[in-house]
Amino acid sequence: MTFKRLIFNFILFCLFAIALCGRVAPGEEQVLKPSGDRRSSPPGSNGKVFKRAAFTMGSLMEITAYGDDDKRVDNAISKAFSEVKRLDNLMSNYKQDSELSRINREAVKGPTSCDPELIYVIEQSLLYSQITGGAFDITVYPIVNIWGFFGNPNGDIIGDIPAEKGLKGLLSAVSYKNIIIEDKDSNGHGNRGIKTIFFKNPLTQIDLGGIGKGYAVDRVSDILKKEGISSALINFAGNIYAFGSPPRRDEWIVGVRDPKDSQNVIATFKIKDKGVATSGNYERFFVKDGKQYSHIIDPRTGRPVEGVLSVTIMADNAITADALSTGVFVLGPDDGLKLIERLDNVEGIIISEDKDSHIMINTSEGFKELFD
Ligand code: AMP
Ligand code: MG
Predict the structure, then answer these.
(1) What is the C-alpha to C-alpha distance for residues 199 and 251, in angstroms, rounded to an integer?
(2) Is 144 a pocket residue for ligand 1 (Cβ < 6 Å)?
(3) Which one, out of 69, 212, 263, 322, has a CA that is 20 to 30 A from the CA of 297?
(4) What angle do helix axes 116-131 and 318-342 make, rounded to 10 degrees?
C-alpha cells in the first residue's frame, strides 16, 4: 500500500467513522472533531478542517469544511444546519404540519396552492420519473406505508408483507401521472407565479424520501459557498456533494461501501464539484421468514426490488444523483446501466446479486477512470 493510499484511506476512515458515530438526538448538533492545526498547512491553502454533524430529517448530516477563519466557517455551518431544519418543515411526511403533509391531505380534494419551493422539488421528481420511465416515482407513498417502511416514530421498521388484495388496490394510486401541477393563473384566480397541485387518484400521496436529502445537500452547499467557504464535503446519509478540495489535494476521495459489510470499502474514487448518492438495500429493511424486504419499491408491482444491493450515482448535483440512484436501483443492472450511459455527466456503479448469491458489479465507462 502506497503512502498516498494510506492517507486517503485514513480520510475515508474518518468519513466512515463520522457516519458510524453515536446517535445524536433529533435536531441536536454534535461537534465531531476539533479544528486541525493551521501551522501544518502550506501558505495559501484553506488550512483548518471543521467537522460538524447533526441528526436532522431522520438522518445524520455531516459537514466537513476547510477555512482559515473560525468564525466564518462556524457561522456558515450553523446557517447550513438551519437550512436543513427549514427544508424538513417543507418536505417531511413525518411532521403533520409540514407543507408536504398538508398537500398530501388536501391535493386529493382539488387544485391546492403549494409553496413554490415544494412545487420545484415535485417538478424535479416528475422529470426523473420521465427520465427513468416511471422507475423513480414519488407517488410510492401508499406502498411504502403498507409495507411498513416508514417505521414507527422512533424510526424502527416493523414491516410485514401486505395482503395481495390491499396491495393491488393501491397500485392505480401509484403513478407520477396522477400529479397535476398548474399555474394558478390558468384557473383565472390571478396570483401570477403561484402553482396549484392536484392528485387525480383519491389514494395518491407523495413521499420525497428518494430525492429530498439530495435537494437539501444542494441547498446546503449553496449556503456554504455564499458564506465564503471554498472547500467542503456534505454527507447526508449517503447523499454527498463535494466542492473545492482539501489542502494540498486536487479532489476529494469518497468510497463505495461493500453492501454486505458496512466496515468494508470496495472502491474509492475522486470527486470535485460533484454530487454522489448511494441507494442501498441495507438502509431500511425487515426480514420475514428468512427473507429480506428492502425499502425501494418497484412502482409497477408495488413490491420491494430484489437482487440489487446498492447503486451509486455521480452527477453534477446531489438532487440528480439522489433521484437517479433510487430510479436505477428499480431498473436493475441491465436497464440501469443503459440509462446511465445514455445520460450526460452521469456515472454509476450497480452492485447486484443473482439467485446463487454471486455478486456482480456493473460500472459505467466514465466511472472507471475516476477510481483512485
Ligand atoms: P434512497 O435511499 O434515496 O434510494 O430513497 C429510498 C426512499 O425513497 C425509500 O425509503 C422510500 O421512502 C422512497 N422510495 C421507495 N421506492 C421509490 C421509488 N421507486 N421512487 C421514488 N422513491 C421511492
Ligand atoms: Mg435517492
Answers:
(1) 44
(2) yes
(3) 263
(4) 20
Q: What is the pTM of this model?
A: 0.89
Per the structure block, which three cell numbers stand in for 149?
417502511
Distance (Å) from CA 329 to ligand 2 centroid: 9
Who wins on pLDDT, 82 or 35?
A: 82
Pocket lining: 142 vs ligand 1, CB cutoff 6 Å: no
pLDDT tens digits for range 13-51: 334 333 332 233 333 344 333 333 333 444 444 579 999
**Cell numbers linked to 214:** 439530495
* Amino acid symbol at 53: A
Residue whose grid cell is 387525480: 200
Q: How far apart are the CA of 144 and the centre of ligand 1, in A?
A: 8
Residue 90 phi, psi dihedral angles, 5° rounding: -90, -45
Pairwise CA distance, residues 254 & 236, whole Å: 13
Query: How far apart are the C-alpha atoms of 49 and 247, rounded to whole Å?
Result: 9
Q: What is the pLDDT of residues 111-150, one digit of tens each?
A: 999 999 999 999 999 999 999 999 999 999 999 999 999 9
Distance CA 345, CA 343 (A): 7
